Amino acid sequence: MKKSILYFCIATVLAISVYFLPNLYGTIRLNEQNDPIDPLSKMWLDKSGKQLQHDYPATIRVLKIEGSGDDLIFSVKQGANNFYSKKIYNYTSRISGDTLYLKTKGETEFSISNRGTLNKIIIEKAHGFIHDERNTGISSFEIGNSSRMRLFTKLDTTAAKQLQLQVRDESVLQLNNGKISTITATVNNGEIILGSKLMTDTANIRLEGRSTVRSDMPGNMQEVKNLIVSGNRQYFKEKNMGKGMTIRMIQ
User: Looking at the record's lineage, which domain of life comes first (predicted)?
Assistant: First the structure.
């Protein structure tokens, strides 16, 4: 009789703990913003290695990442229209019109797959890397709000025909590598850095406000054949460019 009472008490305690403290047993509790609501939920989530994947409709043409001023590692791949992060509680998402908005919280690592419908990416208030598999359909990048990003693309792919860039609001974009036939950029109070491994026939860059363009390794050989600089050239210095390119300045 005493043993049965003891077993009943143990079972009751376990049932109560499972009901009231489920995260003791690995249950992850999240709020509507994908945030863990207690320290144990955060611990289990970090250990689980889960990735939260979302599909997005084919009507989406623009992706806008609203950063928090922290590090961002962002990959663009070929495949079905979806996106995911290694940590499911460090971003929120919403759709408005033809734009998918991702708002980050803290350091974030994202990956998005694209069947060719998405063609523009906007990044604000972030610092880090963009890894873009060429021929993913992305033809335009806009960097703003004091962001500092480096764009990496695969060198073993066919050259992209054209890349449109806009850099503004004291932001810096470094084109680290890749094969692009033509680059057209507008820089408004920002900076574009041309990497020594970037291969392009023509880079046409318009400078506005306190803006400039330079090489990552001034004085070294550059794979950019032609550089056309227009607009306000007050802060542009030819000595900051690489060798082997033809530089032309126009109004």
Answer: Bacteria
